[in-house]
Amino acid sequence: MCDDIERVLLSEEEIAAKVKELGAQITRDYQGKNLMMVSVLKGSVVFMADLMRAIDLPCRIDFMCVSSYGSGSSSSGVVKIIKDLDIDLHNVDLLIVEDILDSGKTLHYITKLLAERGTASIRIATLLDKPERRVVPLSPDYCCFSVPDEFVVGYGLDYDEQYRNLPYIGVLKRSVYEK
Ligand code: IMP
Ligand code: MG
Q1: Catalytic residues
Q2: Most Cβ neighbours (<10 Å): which of 36, 59, 121, 125?
Q3: Which ligand 1 atom is at minimum distance from the Cα of 79?
Q4: Bridge partners of residue 60, in order along the sequence
Q5: Which tens digit of pLDDT belongs to each residue from 137-150?
Q6: What separation in Å is there between the alpha carbon of 153 and the centre of ligand 1?
Q7: Distance from the CA of 135 to the center of ligand 1, in angstroms?
Q8: How much is the pTM?
């Protein structure tokens, strides 16, 4: 295990099982719909790659990049679009795919922005939810795991752009970010 990880919170196997289950649920819910999945870069890429392959339906994907965090571990509240979507959203059943719902500021902003583009529906699928940290009233339509208020990395989630490639989700040692 990586030296900077205090403990493994969710193993590779636990994540894989839950993502498969969520994919099956989305497959049932989106029968006959015009599904498009939007991954919010970069944290959700690993989840997106696994989730889309667990969905047995015609589906399009796109990517959007926003920044709400600098290199620190708490939300700045400032959301900036770095890369917008390429695909038109008219009559699309949009599923926004996020790594973690923390304060909710990022998703609140993205959802409001994309709702103005003629979508038929918008739902949120998040890998992790930290409900204790919510500042904006927002709850995910689909969520794999609720996690305690600790800083986690791996399976796409970063601290200062590191640790995204860990195959599990681990709690980062405080000493790493409290220098
Ligand atoms: P929010 O706007 O506060 O909900 O922040 C959401 C974003 O903050 C996520 O997409 C992550 O990039 C980042 N984030 C929040 N908590 C964590 C964490 O524990 N580990 C890594 N990134 C986090
Ligand atoms: Mg991030």
Answers
A1: 102
A2: 125
A3: 2
A4: 36
A5: 999 999 999 999 99
A6: 10
A7: 13
A8: 0.94
